[in-house]
Design goal:
It is built from 3 helices and no strands. It is mainly α. The longest helix has 38 residues.
């Protein structure tokens, strides 16, 4: 008989508790949902971070594609442009045409390239 009375007592208390504190519980639940939607792992702030990261990666891809295109053009020029090949051979490899003489000036004796210097 004691268990039945306890069971009836709980059945009567639950509706009374919900009636007294239902709005508070609902408000707390809604507040928790809003906080989760904003700060959660898949919330608004995480979405903004992800969108910013996507934009940054797209900019990097565009920059790298542009750089890749420029390098491809340079490769084509190095394979086919005789004047560019000759320029590189003369400047970087210090080669000369037959009959030419290369005179090297030590770095310490070179004058700095000054825009106000007269030729």
């Amino acid at each position: 008989m004691g268990a039945e009375k306890l069971s009836m007592d709980i059945k009567q208390r639950v509706p009374i508790f919900l009636k007294e504190h239902g709005r508070t519980l609902l408000g707390m639940f809604l507040l928790a949902m809003v906080v989760h939607d904003i700060l959660g792992a898949h919330g608004f702030l995480a979405m903004r971070r992800t969108q910013n990261e996507i934009q940054r990666v797209r900019r990097d891809i565009d920059r790298l594609n542009s750089e890749n295109s420029e390098l491809g053009d340079q490769v084509k020029a190095l394979k086919s442009d005789r004047h560019l090949i000759e320029k590189i051979a003369r400047e970087e490899l210090q080669q000369a045409k037959p009959g030419e003489i290369i005179i090297r000036i030590p770095q310490s004796q070179q004058t700095p390239a000054d825009s106000s210097a007269k030729p």
